[in-house]
């Protein structure tokens, strides 16, 4: 898969099918657009192209106003797994907010990407004052010799699949519902770093990950989780919070991995959130905390780990 980081770098694309959007999370609605684009490209023997942004448009207008569901590296991996030929991932900048909609179509989609097919969602918009939309693209079909496929909203039950709804689930700690909309469980990745290491003193060592400030954290609480380390999966109990029992002041994400005793400082792990177990609370003593952790890990072992092991 070819990755292009600026509009100026686009070249050597003779014909293409293109889908455009931010694609944060690459949820099931996004997947419909992307798979349709890939299939059209394969059928017509041309390149499939995803045109997207390295930063969320909302954060261009108001920096730090929105946390992402996933980072760009994860997003690119998913695009590649879906069979996309080319990803144009450019900064959302002044050009994107000031360019005339038809000028963007002419300069980028036609002159640079030589697009024959465009696939967009029904609510897609672009260019200055969001004047570019599916209606405009349809009106330009004959002039620029491309076909536009407008995809209707994707519903799960009676709920529209959207990045904003998935962010709401994450923020509410309703991680067990996310797979229905995202197509996978919610995950966060990070390097394992040193912290207070108090868990080790009570028999529950934890892997603390460095938090990416641009990625949305689940609601504070304790979660059943699964950890990916060097292509191996392990179950665990993950705490998202401030560790009030030991007067913690900084938000942390730390996971006690079941049946695990390795030094993994400096390693990058992926924490997959399966289900919220309980809220984070302040205990009267470390011994009370230890007893609760026995209950938490027992829940994970009973409801997740033992079932997988039995199935094997």
List keywords for this structure.
single chain; 312 residues; alpha/beta; Rossmann fold; Elongation Factor Tu (Ef-tu), domain 3; 6-stranded parallel β-sheet; 6-stranded antiparallel barrel; 11 helices; 16 strands; elongated
In short:
The chain has 312 residues and is α/β, with parallel strands linked by helices. The protein has helices at 28-44, 57-61, 72-81, 94-98, 101-110, 134-139, 141-144, 163-171, 179-182, 198-201, 286-311, and strands at residues 2-4, 16-20, 47-53, 86-90, 115-121, 125-126, 132-133, 147-151, 155-156, 159-160, 186-193, 207-209, 221-229, 232-241, 252-257, 268-278. Strands 1-4-3-2-5-8 form a six-stranded parallel β-sheet. Strands 11-12-15-14-13-16 form a six-stranded antiparallel barrel. A two-stranded antiparallel ribbon has the order 6-7.
Question: How would you describe this structure to a colleague?
Answer:
The chain is α/β, with parallel strands linked by helices. It folds into 2 domains: 2-159, 3-Layer(aba) Sandwich (Rossmann fold), CATH 3.40.50.620; 185-311, Elongation Factor Tu (Ef-tu), domain 3, CATH 2.40.30.30. The chain is 32% helix and 28% strand. It contains 11 helices and 16 strands. It has helices spanning 28-44, 57-61, 72-81, 94-98, 101-110, 134-139, 141-144, 163-171, 179-182, 198-201, 286-311; strands at residues 2-4, 16-20, 47-53, 86-90, 115-121, 125-126, 132-133, 147-151, 155-156, 159-160, 186-193, 207-209, 221-229, 232-241, 252-257, 268-278. The strands form 4 sheets. The chain has a 6-stranded parallel β-sheet with strand order 1-4-3-2-5-8. A hairpin with a 2-residue loop joins strand 9 (155-156) and strand 10. The longest helix has 26 residues, at 286-311. It is elongated. The model has no long low-confidence stretch (mean pLDDT 94).
């Amino acid at each position: 898969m070819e990755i292009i980081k600026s509009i100026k770098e686009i070249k050597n694309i003779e014909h293409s099918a293109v889908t455009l959007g931010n694609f944060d999370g690459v949820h099931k609605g996004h997947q419909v657009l992307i798979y349709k684009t890939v299939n059209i490209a394969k059928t017509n023997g041309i390149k499939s192209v995803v045109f997207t942004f390295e930063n969320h448009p909302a954060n261009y207008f108001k920096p730090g106003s929105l946390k992402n569901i996933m980072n760009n590296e994860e997003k690119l991996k998913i695009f590649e797994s879906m069979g996309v030929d080319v990803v144009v991932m450019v900064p959302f900048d002044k050009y994107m907010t000031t360019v005339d909609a038809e000028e963007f179509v002419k300069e980028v989609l036609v002159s640079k990407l030589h697009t024959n097919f465009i696939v967009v969602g029904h609510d897609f918009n672009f260019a200055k004052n969001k004047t570019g939309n599916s209606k405009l693209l349809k009106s330009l079909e004959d002039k620029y010799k491309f076909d536009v496929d407008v995809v209707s909203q994707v519903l799960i039950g009676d709920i529209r699949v959207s990045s904003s709804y998935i962010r709401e689930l994450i923020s509410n700690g309703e991680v067990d519902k996310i797979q229905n909309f995202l197509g996978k469980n919610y995950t966060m990745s990070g390097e394992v770093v040193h912290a207070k290491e108090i868990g080790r003193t009570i028999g529950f060592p934890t892997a603390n990950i460095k938090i990416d400030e641009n990625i949305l954290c689940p609601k504070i609480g304790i979660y059943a989780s699964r950890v990916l380390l060097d292509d191996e999966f392990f179950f665990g109990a993950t705490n998202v919070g401030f560790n009030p029992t030991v007067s913690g002041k900084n938000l942390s994400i730390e996971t006690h991995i079941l049946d695990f005793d390795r030094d993994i400082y400096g390693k990058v792990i992926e924490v997959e959130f399966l289900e919220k177990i309980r809220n984070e609370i302040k205990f009267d003593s470390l011994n009370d905390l230890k007893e609760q952790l026995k209950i938490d890990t027992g829940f994970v072992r009973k409801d997740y780990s033992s079932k997988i092991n039995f199935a094997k």
